[in-house]
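Quick sanity check, ABC-2 type transporter transmembrane domain-containing protein:
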Amino acid sequence: MNISTVWYMLRCFQAVFIVVCRCQNTIIGGPFLRGVSGGERKRVCMGQEILIDPSLLFLDEPTSGLDSSTALRIVHIMKKISQVGRTVVTTIHQPSSRIYHMFDKLILLSEGQLLYYGKASHAMNYFSSIGFSPQIAMNPADFLLDLASGNVVDMSTPIQLLGQCADYNGARGLHSIDVGSKKNHSNSLQPKYVNQYLSRAYKDMLSKNDALQDEDMGVRTISPYSDTARTSWKASGWKNKSDREWSSTWWCQFCVLYMRGFRERRHEYMSWLRIFQVLASAFIIGCLWWQSNFRTERHLIDQVGLLFFIATFWGFFPLFTALFTFPLERAILAKERACDMYRLSSYFMARTLGDIPLDFCLPLFFHIIVYFMAHLRPSISAFFLTFFTILLSTTASQGMGIAIGALMMDLKKATTLASIVLLTFMLSGGFFVQSIPSFIAWIRYISYNYHTFRLLATVQYGHGSQYFNCDTSTGCQKVEEASIFHNISLEGGGTEVLVLLSMIIGYRLIAYVALRRMSLAI
């Protein structure tokens, strides 16, 4: 194994070690599916970040809600990561003394003001040098948090601070503090006076010492906001977003995202509720059009109505399913994209192609039930061509839903727009209105319902001599001569296939461009 393989396996081991071993085969879950606990979910997120090998790992209170032993293990792994050339920045909540002494550097803030920035091991010495030191044995982290909140109980305070408070209170005509009894009056200090004093003391120290490190206490004296710091960041090899290097190939990202999406959505797509919905609809449709035929024109119109309903059903059902795809995943997509976990193109292709196998099953069940119960054209080629047409309609309507969801990114707006578009496509589909006014006739050509309906009619009644009204005195008539097909050609079908394929690709390109323009802000 080469070095990169060994390093990747080490990252995987660290990521797995963070997650509790007994939960390694447990579903993470979500709002509607129970999974791991909050602490386990947090560790899963950390392991996920470690796998992409970031140069900067930023963690917001990673030990909150964890017991002391687990929190110590988490910080120990963070320490190991920092020792191999990675920077780990974290906020911490009530760390134990053992955890505190594992940190290299410390930034102490109070209401946005910088109180200390330097080595964590030298923080106590620094505050002791300006007059703040604990009077009882206490955790350094507790001492620093008390200082940041302005609570100076059980700690010594500088005489200058008490004097300033006394002068301020005297100027306002209030009872002044006896400077000589500072031990008894530490509780009288308001937090804002303590914070102002600490912030001013740190700024004074910075102004007096412009060197990189204080010789006595080892305090880093370069402000993180200074020109020197910005210069060092640029010199350290910081790269623009356009010049970034990915930790894995496009194909690797695609495969991982494809499997993740497939495993996540298979429970939703193949749930018993959805299966029952489709099968029940198919059974009801089969009963209503039971053993249909086209002996007369009235029967022919009924069967054509079935074809139009199939085109409509698989025009709205996948659309509203896909409509929620990107609005619901916007938060996690923005978060993972901001961390440069993967390329947007690999995510989009995995998300798009991952739905195709799942969308293949339900239309197949529906088609088998309806086709034989309704007694449609008894031909093997017609059976498979009808199913192929349903798949084209399903994929096209799904693309429309993805595009609308990506453009709107708001469920209410997306649902409203999708309802209007779907109603327009259905009315112009060629069944309800045969003669559309010329000024709006163009709208039928952008309706996938129209092309699906024409293709279904061509498969069922075209490419062969079929007749109806054979029992009448006028004799048999060709199906093409029926009044319902006056504006619908039953020849060809290749044009409709090309148009539907163009819609499948075009809608997804629109969705991809919309995602590219999406802000990464959550």
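Posting the structure with no commentary besides this: The beta strands are 56-60, 87-91, 105-110, 113-119, 133-134, 155-156, 467-468, 477-478.
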